Amino acid sequence: MADEKSKGGNKNAAETVVIKKYANRRLYNTRTSAYVTLEDLATMVREGVDFVVYDAKTNDDLTRQILTQIIFEEESRGEALLPVQFLRQLIGFYGGQMQGVLPSYLEMSLANFGRQQEQFASQLSRAFGTGAGASLMEDAARANIAMFERAMQMFPGFGYARAEPTEARVEPAPSAETAEKTPDALDEMRRQMDEMRRQIDSLAGAKPK
Fold it and tell me: What top-level branch of life does the organism fall under (predicted)?
């Protein structure tokens, strides 16, 4: 399917492949005039081919549904990328106040990780066993935390100040009104971010000098 790759990274309407889904659940590639499977679509994603999926009868956009099915197929065959705890937390965000924030954060984080992927591969291979690899992962974790904080600050009421060291932090007693207004999910996320920072700081302190 190399001939279907988007050239120069441009993904405009002319380059987007249209897939039709029929009532018998078969998927039809209108560009190649051939039926395809979920595995074929997964290969297209990996090759950078942009596509949309429409219901052949109603013309409803089924792209999100099909991509989710691809993830399910990949996870069910043992190539798991999504930790169970992550899936539990993700489900918990549906219908909550964080639902409007999380998609943008995940999209930015994955885009950032994708840009760093090749750099990780080369640098980690050179730094294997030297302690520098831990430094790279530490930097990436810090970058993702900072990105999340910037995303949170874009929404009124969700600004999150970086936690100070335990010995220097003075926490005022929250009022009853403030406690009632703070979403449980947001409190849990803040707690986890603090824990991530403590682990990163511990990793940094344990690196060989």
Answer: Bacteria
pLDDT in tens, 12-56: 555 899 999 999 889 999 999 999 999 999 999 999 999 999 999
Helices (H), the chain: 38-46, 63-76, 84-93, 102-127, 132-153, 176-181, 184-206
For residue 208, how many other CB atoms are within 10 A of its CB?
Answer: 7
Instruction: Tell whether pTM > 0.85.
Output: no
How many of the other CB atoms lie within 10 Å of CB of 48? Answer: 12
From the list 162, 169, 150, 158, the residue with the least C-alpha distance to 200 is 162
DSSP at 7: G
Q: Does residue 24 sit in helix, strand or coil?
A: coil
